[in-house]
Design brief:
Layout: H1 6-34, H2 40-50, H3 54-57, H4 59-71, H5 73-82, H6 84-104, H7 111-138, E1 142-143, E2 146-147, H8 157-181, H9 184-215, H10 217-224, H11 228-232, H12 234-251, H13 256-277, E3 280-282, E4 286-287, H14 288-291, H15 295-322
Antiparallel strand pairs: 1-2, 3-4
Helix pairs in contact: 1-2, 1-4, 1-7, 1-8, 4-5, 6-7, 7-8, 8-9, 8-13, 9-10, 9-12, 12-13
C-alpha cells in the first residue's frame, strides 16, 4: 500500500502561501503606506517597524515556490509560463525595495529617491502578486500537459482588478501593523488608513464573490446548489462578523485586535478560494493528484521538509519576540 502524501503537501503549500501573505503582506502594506506618511521621524519609525523582520518573511515565498516545483511539477510547468511576466516584475520590485532598506539610512543625499523605491517597489510587488492570484482563479488555456495561452493572458480585467484589491488588502495589514507597533500621531494616522482600506477590502470581497460564480458556472454550482448552500453559508456569515469586529476594534482604538482581524479576513478569503477551486491546482484542468510528483519523490522531499520547517518556524517566532514592542524612528536600519 502506497501512502498518499498529496493531502499533506497540499496543507504544507497552503500554509506557506498563507504565511507569506500575512507576514510579507503587512510589510509590503507598510511600504505602500510609507509614501503617504509625512515627517522624517514618522517615516523612519514606519520603516523600522518592519526592518528587523522583512527579509525573513520572504522565506515563505521561496518555500512555496520550491514546494510547488517539486511536489506538483505539472502545475509548476503550466502556471509559471502563464504568469512569467508578473512574477518577474514582482521579483524585480522586491529586489529594488530591499535595496531601499539598506540605502535609505546610509545615503542621505538620495533619501527621497530611496523613499520612492521603498514605496514603489512595495506597490508594484503587491500588484503583481494580485495579478498572479487573479490569473490563477481565472484559469489557464491548456492543451495536453502544456500551457497553450499567451504570455499576456494576465492582462485581463479580472487579474488586474485582483491586483488592485490586494493592494488594499496588504494596505489593511500594514496599517494594522503600524497601529500595533507605533504610537501617537502615526498610530492615529494608521488607524484612519486602516478604516479606508477595510472598506475597500470588503468591497473587493463582495465583488469577487459575485464575479467568480458568474464567470464560472461550476463555482456557482458548488456554492449555491442544495445542500452546499447550507453547509457553506457559515463562510460569508463569519466573514461579515469578522468585518464588523474589525470596524469596532478600529473605532475603539484597540491595538492588537485590528491586526488579528485583518489576518482573519485574509484567512476567510483564502478559505473561500480553496472551497471554490478544490481539488484543482491548475484551474480548471488538473487536480492535485493529477499534477503531483511520484509518491517516492514526495516522501523524499518530506524528510528534509520536516527538519527544515521547524527551524523556519522557530527563528521566525524568535525574531518577532526579540523585536516585540513599539518601533522608534531614532535609530536607522543596520
Amino acid at each position: 500500500m502506497v501512502l498518499d502524501l498529496v493531502p499533506l503537501w497540499t496543507i504544507l503549500l497552503g500554509l506557506a502561501v498563507f504565511y507569506y501573505v500575512v507576514f510579507d503582506g503587512f510589510d509590503l502594506g507598510v511600504g505602500m503606506l510609507y509614501g503617504f506618511v509625512r515627517g522624517e521621524t514618522a517615516r523612519a519609525t514606519a520603516m523600522n517597524s518592519v526592518a528587523p523582520v522583512w527579509d525573513g518573511n520572504e522565506t515563505w515565498l521561496v518555500f512555496g515556490g520550491l514546494g510547488l516545483l517539486t511536489a506538483f511539477p505539472l502545475a509548476f510547468a503550466i502556471i509559471i509560463p502563464a504568469v512569467y511576466f508578473p512574477i518577474l516584475i514582482m521579483l524585480l520590485a522586491l529586489i529594488f525595495r530591499g535595496v531601499a532598506f539598506e540605502f535609505r539610512f546610509k545615503h542621505a543625499a538620495l533619501r527621497r529617491f530611496w523613499d520612492g523605491a521603498f514605496c514603489g517597489g512595495s506597490l508594484v510587488a503587491t500588484f503583481a502578486q494580485g495579478v498572479v492570484l487573479g490569473t490563477f482563479i481565472q484559469g489557464f488555456k491548456v492543451e495536453g500537459r502544456q500551457f497553450a495561452g499567451s504570455s499576456f493572458d494576465w492582462l485581463a480585467p479580472f487579474p488586474l482588478a485582483i491586483g488592485v484589491a490586494l493592494m488594499f488588502g496588504y494596505g489593511l495589514l500594514g496599517a494594522c501593523w503600524l497601529i500595533l507597533k507605533t504610537e501617537g500621531e502615526l498610530q492615529d494616522w494608521a488607524r484612519r488608513a486602516a478604516g479606508i482600506c477595510l472598506i475597500a477590502v470588503l468591497a473587493a470581497i463582495a465583488g469577487v464573490s459575485i464575479w467568480t460564480p458568474l464567470a464560472h458556472p461550476n463555482i456557482a454550482q458548488r456554492w449555491f446548489s442544495w445542500p452546499n448552500i447550507a453547509f457553506l453559508s457559515p463562510v460569508p456569515i463569519i466573514t461579515a462578523l469578522i468585518a464588523i469586529g474589525e470596524w469596532e476594534a478600529l473605532r475603539r482604538r484597540h491595538e492588537l485586535t485590528p491586526f488579528l482581524g485583518a489576518i482573519a479576513l485574509f484567512l476567510m478569503s483564502f478559505a473561500g478560494i480553496a472551497i471554490s477551486l478544490w481539488p484543482m491546482i491548475v484551474p480548471y484542468h488538473y487536480t492535485l493528484w493529477q499534477a503531483a510528483s511520484s509518491a517516492s519523490t514526495q516522501a523524499f522531499l518530506l524528510i528534509g521538509t520536516l527538519f527544515l520547517l521547524p527551524v523556519i518556524l522557530m527563528y521566525t517566532a524568535w525574531s518577532y519576540w526579540v523585536f516585540r514592542g513599539k518601533a522608534r524612528g531614532i535609530a536607522g536600519y543596520h
